[in-house]
Amino acid sequence: MMELQTSLLYAVFAAYCGAVLFYFVHLPLRRSWLWRTAFSLVLAGFALQTVCLALRWYSGGYLPVTNLFSTQFFFSWALAATYLYFELRYRIHAAGLFVIFCTLLLLGSVLQRSAEIPPLIPMLDTPLFTLHVSLSFGGYAFFAMAFSLGVLYLLQKRLQTGLLPDLLLLRKMNEEAVFLGFCLFTLCMIFGSIWAYVAWGYYFSWNIKGVWSALVWLFYAGMCHAKFIRRWQGSGYAALSIVGFGLVLFTYLGIGLLMSSNHPLD
Length: 266
Description:
By secondary structure, the protein is mostly helical. The chain has helices spanning 2-29, 32-60, 68-90, 97-110, 127-159, 167-200, 208-226, 235-258. It has 2 domains: 1-120; 124-266. The protein is built from 8 helices and no strands. One of its GO terms (molecular function) is heme binding. The chain crosses the membrane at residues 6-25, 37-59, 65-85, 92-111, 131-156, 177-198, 210-229, 236-259.
C-alpha cells in the first residue's frame, strides 16, 4: 500500500510540473491547446492525488493530517481543488499559475519525507477533528488564491496587459476567494471550539496557535467588510489579500517552526 501511495505521489508531482510548464508557455503564445493540455494535467494530477488521499484515509482509518507531511499533502490537494473551482467558474487559465506552483512546492517539499501515518491519539479521534482541520485548510487554500489574485490585480493595474484578466474580474474573484475562505475558516473555528470543549472542557485556549488563528479570522472578517468601503476597494483590497496570506503562512508554518505551542497539531 505504501509503495502504491509513493508511486501516486510522484505521478501527481509530474502532472503538476507539466501543468506549470504548459501554463508558462501559454502566457506568451496564447494557444488554446496549451492551456487545455495544462488544465488536463491539473485534472489528472488532482484525480490521482484524490485517489492517494483516499488510500491514506482508508489505511489510516482517519483523515491523515496529524504531521507535517500529511498537512502539506492535504493543503496541496485543497489548493488544486480551489484552482479547479476558479478555472471551471471563470476560465482563469494561467492566471491561477501561482496556486498550481504553490501546490507543486508543497508536494516537492514532502517527496523525501516519510509518508507513514502515525497512530491517532485519543483526543483527535472524533469527527470534529476531521471537520476542523479539513475546513481550516480549505480556508487557507482560498486565502492563497486571494493572495495570487491580489498580486495579479496590482500587476494588471500597473502593466495593463492582455496576458492577465481585466481588473474588474480580478477584483470580483479576489473578493469571492476571501469570502469563501472566510466562510470555511469560520466553520473551522466553530467546530474547533466544540472539539476543544469536548476534549478539555473549554471553547478557547490562549495558546499561541489559537490566538493567531483568531487573529486570522478577525483579519479576514475585516476584509469582508472592507470591500464595501471605497478607499479599500481595488488596490487596497489586493494589498490586504497579500498581508492576510502572510498571517496565514505564519499561523500554519511559522508558529510550529519558530515558537512553542501546546496545540495538538504542533
